[in-house]
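Known limitations

Structure tokens in this collection are predictions and should be treated as such. Users comparing against experimental data should check residue numbering before alignment. To illustrate the layout, the record for Nicotinic receptor-associated protein 1 is reproduced below. The input appears on top and the generated tokens appear beneath it.
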Amino acid sequence: MNQPSALGLNESRPKTNVRLTISANNLMDLDVFSVSDPICIIYEKTSGRKATTTDPITLPTWRDRQWTERGRTEIVWNDLNPQFKTTFLLPYFFEETQLLRFELYDVDSKIVGTDLTAHDFLGRFECVLAQIVSYSTFRAHLGGQEQIGCQVKPKDKNSKNGTITIRAEEDEKNEKIQFDVCGEGLDRKDFFRKSDPYLNSKRRFDDGSSHIIHQTEVKPKTLNPRWATVQINTQALCGKNPDRPIIIECYDHEKFKKQNDIIGVSQISLGQLLSEAGKTGATLQIPLINEKKKAKKSKYKNAGILKFWNAKIVIEPTFLDFISGGTQLDFAVAVDFTASNGNPAQSSSLHYMASGYPNQYEIALRAVLSICQHYNSSKTFEAYGFGAKLPGQHGVSAVFPLDLRAHNPSVVGINGVMSAYRHALQSVTLYGPTNFSPIIEQVAKKAQRMINSTARYQILLIITDGIISDMYATINTVISASGLPLSIIIVGVGNEDFERMHELDSDDALLQQDSRIAQRDIVQFVTMRDFLNRSTGGYLDTDTVMENLAREVLYEVPAQLTGYMKQRGFGPRSADDPWQRDSPPDDYDPMMDHVHYNTTATAPPLYPQV
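Generated tokens:
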């Protein structure tokens, strides 16, 4: 086992910190003259395949180098129902599989080292962090020496090893200062017209330097501007220190000069804003000072006045707030069955089924589904195909259920999606063209039915090998869908030039066509080939490809969901009264979703030469 290390996988990436609180019930009593003295140790799998195992565990976790200890609780003496006071702070990444193990031991001495041979094993539970945060309060049966345990169901009885309860809550909320601000009597900076003022809010650091944190919009041709309501993250603005100075600069925007003209500067603090501009009807007035003018004029007053009012702290709901409140991610997949993929019977085809190796379509499906499944308690997905001729039909089907059942695209579990894909591949005739607008319209109709609450949010994964044939119609469809609870992920497979596909992924500017502009960015596009090759040559193993691909394609989903909810004015439901979570069908077996591919070959046939 790796030695304990700092919690945090990559500090440069945005993350949410989740605090876990742990308790256990009905533990085994392994002491002769008293009851057990439990301790709980948390491990995270930091190397190897990050999926819950279906095989018996033969190597103790503390000896397994694929697992890293993330922390341990205090010892609770003589208690079979411990409530541990020690909590654990873990970084949470929506787009990653973070596999954890919780192991309880009955300790036999006050000193517990990394070697746990002398202590009695009480039970184990293994799951991904996403499962815990999806439920906020998560209860599970503890497994024995070779087992990983399982989630408690409503009618379950007590189990031999007892149960563990894990509560998750976000450690730090997105706190912002919100206020209204206007200027009065600002200096005129132009000879023939009034100024075009805007404000910069800057953080001052301990070394005396400053950094711009926020900028308002420009108000043209006015000396008495009123800017839109301002919201700024308090951590970024002043480190949440109510007394740290905040610099406010007022500039005149110049179109035809290299530099904008300074009108004046003032200084306030977070505490001042809240105390003097936060009361009903109260206004805080601060003069703007232009130091150059002040130095030249003995009777200098100011360069105008800034007025602040309606100041308050607002907590912006996070992705985890919505998930804890029961928001479910509905998931649909659409697979490209156009003829440009090649004959599936030939090894050069992107749909070719090699024994023991997934093709690129299977990699993309499993990579994204393995993450998203934890945010949909029904474990039911919608699976479509497009661009093929169905058995007994002469025309091309623009959209069809992947398992070829009429009018029913729903399948259960990852295994259900993969089985439907293989069934379709053996039954349909690959054809064309590559049209995206029909499938986006189909899924958008479902998303339209979700707009009145925060109960559900739709994700659509499209996997394709070629350029879109109906780009104009697709852009129009995406723009129309941009106001819906919908995110679209597009994965390009094969060696095609996907340059035009990046038009849909409008990270720098909102998607627009003719006179229409999207309400928000809802598309993420990546190419599979960027994840297949090692930088040193050869090919990455399948598990690594899936892990890296999922991290990239799902990275934007949390911000897209919260952005939509904010746009609609929706707040999350309370974690104490969440939306009802649907149960999976009785025949759903989560173990069927864990398939271990052969990852030892250096050049598996599924990878086209790139």
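For this record: The longest helix spans residues 413-427. The longest strand covers residues 305-316. Please report discrepancies through the issue tracker.
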